[in-house]
Amino acid sequence: MNFSLNEEQMMLQDSVEKFIDNDYDFETRQKIAASDSGFSADVWRTFAELGWTAVPFAEDDGGFDGGAIEIMVIMQLFGRGLVVEPYLANIVLAGGILGRAANAEQKEKWLHPIIAGELQATLAFVEPQSRYDIANIATVAAVDGEAWRLNGNKGFVLNGGNAGLIIVPARSGGGQTDRDGITLFAVPADSKGITCNAYATVDGLRAAEITFEDVRVDAGAVLGEVGGGFAVLDAVIDEATLAVCAEAVGIMQVLRVKTLEYSKSRVQFGVPIGSFQVLQHRMVDMLTDCEQSVSLLLWATMVSASGSAEAKRAISAIKYQVGTAGRKVGQDAVQIHGAMGVSWELDIAHYFKRLTTIGQMFGNADWHLDKLATG
Amino acid sequence: MNVTFSDEEIAFREEVKDFFRTRFPQDVIDKQRLGVPLQRDDMIRSQKSLHEQGWAGVNWPVEFGGTGWTPVQKYIFATEMAEANAPAIVPFGLSMVGPVIYSFGNDEQKQRFLPDILASDTWWCQGYSEPGSGSDLASLKTRADRDGEHYIVNGTKTWTTLGQHADWIFCLVRTSSDVARRQEGISFLLVDMRTKGVTVKPIITIEGDHEVNEVHFEDVRVPLENLVGEEGKGWTYGKVLLQHERTNIAGVARSKYRLKKLRAQAGEAIRGAEPLALDRNFMRKIAAVGVDIKALEYTELRTLAAVASGKAPGPESSILKLKGTDVQQALDALYVEAAGYYALPYVPDQYTLDAPGENHVGHGAETTTSLKYFNNRKASIYGGSNEIQKNIIAKHVLGL
After folding, report:
1. Which of A88, A124, A190, A203 could cross-link A357 (Cys pair, CB 3.0–4.6 Å)?
2. Rounded distance, CA A322 to CA A361, Å?
3. What value of ipTM does the predicted structure carry?
């Protein structure tokens, strides 16, 4: 029983923390979020130089052999810094699929450039009708001689407008919600027949609706087994879910502390508003919610890192927690900041929006509670 | 970072399991299971069996006869004790006054009181609250005036849990009114319940049981040597004691056990009814409490780990009582919900160690669920109500 990071993990934490504290203030973040691509190529290069883009990959693939704990360390701090750079889309999602399913040639072609920070990528795991069921895939992959032909729509593709590589789960067999018959394809974004409608999301990040119309890819685009893509997809979505939970906990902690500080400095009726019992109790609730969330995050991360069979339930538990407690902490932070809390100018509003976004992704609180109730 | 136990810890867990299976009074465990109320003797025999094993002073230092266990061992012990459905240790002696005496008492007091507390040969009760002093405990009025070698105690203590069984009572009393802060006039005094002028009057609580009492003191002569520590420092000692109480009453291990039982029960077709496991709404409520309990378990483990590495527990420790009682009461309510109509018959006398009689109402002990629910509303009130806990956290943890 040990809750401490090891030496390498602490070094990683130090390095991310230094970057967030010294080079990524709120103003910088807002400028980047308002830019065309919604992320900074310079910052991304820095991530690669510092080795963060290599963290979860096997040493043989040029990675650092990191796992759930290392990703938690990074994402929790990215939450604190409200980082908009597409670490989740590139490294956790697209990289996660490639690290698991790609062969040597495919890794050379796609994973290595991702680790080097030279290729932007994503995983198109949502369809307009799928809601949170990742097996609900209507995009069809049909055999076309030696190649494949893809037809269908993908929605809310994170980093979709920036990605040079899109990993597309498509149905090569089975019914629309079957787990069998899903094949993963690595599709260059400039392939003929792809239409990309990119947009900003409410949290300042970027996503896209992407249409595939008779998009031809050769057999070398298939990642892993034909029809056997679900297990890989499922494992990567679990990792991503845990990663955004770590980010959410980082955000909740910032909101709690900033709100507490504000309540000590904001004077109304001649006294700091933090002297009012009704607000004090609310802030104790925020503390409780944050600490309980940290506890669940540690549990879920540790059982995921150890490959325990409990991991899936643990991830549902923390996702439910950040969905419910995160919403409460976010709303309370805004409320206690008063009208300032709903001002674009203040970081509080943007933390709240990111937290809300995370609550809506990879299954909301209700969806995960259902998993726990019926599983 | 890992959540595994060492080989020694696993061996210890087996030892504890074995103890509760073989050396702990099995009839007491049966009573727990069957819903039979425990008597004074049941609790004493239970604790004596722990003492014989050397496990009565779970949190006590070795020099006073305690276990000297690591935080992980304490966690394992609490878990296995709950898993065995053994009754919790009555806290007043072993968890409350004992630590105050070994921390602040003089050598004579340590020799005089600690062995009997450890062996459960004396039963202690707590004299804190008064009719006019609940949340505002420092307003207490019970006076102890010096008269030669004695204090003369006058006043009333209330909500004295299991005071009807007690040999001794530890009290916060006012020894001076002439102080800058009213807390400074409070002292910590040990009183023999057999002393002339002490009377105990039962108070019947919401579920109909005699669990608490009012204790009156009328010109009770208490030797000066029964004062713990310095006169006027009682408030400080009392707060230390409340700290002990706060972590103890989180009761995470027991909540975990009760959740497991409730899940198992939901899978059964009781009285031919459809199993509750098929009721999605109910199962979602169980799942939500389950998340809270798991979080609490890890919050407690984080606290234990901090203590084990020689650090002061962080802010997470302060939420244990608040959240701990929250989940206890949520479970109480779910047990009532699960019982449906059969939470409602008021038949406390039907529970005995004998096989259920022909007229036994309800499945197993399910009619006791509502009694437990009503009784345990106390959990968010005692030891400083949860609102007071929030005030304390706001002041001492958040710096407000």
Report:
1. A203
2. 11
3. 0.95
Q: Give me the number of domains chain B comprises.
A: 3
Query: A261 — contact with chain B (CB < 8 Å)?
Result: no
For residue B368, give both structure tokens.
Answer: 């006791």
Q: Do residue B261 and residue B349 come from a single domain?
A: yes
Nearest to A296 among B280, B295, B394 (CB): B295
Q: Are residues B36 and B64 in the same domain?
A: yes
Q: B309 to chain A: which residues are within 8 Å by CB?
A: 4
Report CA-CA distances (Å) from A196 to A47, A124, A126, A166: 27, 12, 14, 11
In a domain? residue B341: yes
- Is residue A212 within 8 Å of A152, Cβ to Cβ? yes
CATH number at residue B145: 2.40.110.10
Residue A171's domain comprises 123-228
- Of A38, A76, A6, which Cα lies nearest the Cα of A207? A38
pLDDT of B280-289, one tens digit each? 999 999 999 9
The DSSP secondary structure of A194-207, one letter per residue, reads: EEEEEEE-TTS-EE
Answer yes or no: are the C-beta atoms of A165 and A194 closer than 8 Å.
Answer: no
Percentage of residues in chain A with pLDDT exceeding 70? Answer: 100
CB A213 within 8 A of CB A195: yes
Whether A264 and B400 lie within 8 Å, measured CB to CB? yes
The range of the structural domain enclosing residue B129 comes to 123-232
Considering the domain architecture, whether residues A136 and A257 belong to the same structural domain is answered as no
Which band of pLDDT confidence, cut at 50, 70 and 90, is reported for residue A307?
Answer: very high
User: Binning pLDDT at 50, 70 and 90, where does residue B244 land?
Assistant: low
Residues in chain B: 400
The SS3 of residue B241 is helix
The structure's pTM equals 0.95
Give the residues across from B124 on adjacent strands. B168
Domain count, chain A: 3
Q: pLDDT tens across B184-241, in order?
A: 999 999 999 999 999 999 999 999 999 999 999 999 999 999 999 999 999 999 877 7
Pairing of strands A267-268, B143-147: unpaired
Place of tokens 């991304």: A44
User: Distance from B398 to chain A by nearest Cα, in Å?
Assistant: 7
Q: pLDDT at position B71, please?
A: 84
C-alpha angle A252-B3-A362 in degrees, rounded to nearest 5: 45
Single out the residue in B197, B232, B267 at which a domain terminates.
B232
Q: How far apart are CA B199 and CA A219, in angstroms?
A: 90
Mean pLDDT, to the nearest integer, of B269-274? 90
Of A313, A332, A318, A323, residue with least CA distance to A371: A313
Residues belonging to chain A: 375
Any chain B CB within 8 A of the CB of A299? Answer: yes
pLDDT of residue A1: 77
Torsion of Cα atoms, A197 then A200 then A206 then A207, to 10°: -40
Residue A368 lies in a domain: yes
For chain B, count helices (H), then strands (E): 13, 8
Name the strand (E) or helix (H) holding A285.
helix A277-305
DSSP, collapsed to helix, strand or coil, labels residue B347 as coil
Q: Is A304 on the interface with B (CB under 8 A)?
A: no
Contact (Cβ atoms closer than 8 angstroms) between residue B382 and residue B219:
no
For chain B, the average pLDDT equals 93
Assess whether B272 and B366 both reside in one domain: yes
Domain boundary among B89, B112, B142: B89
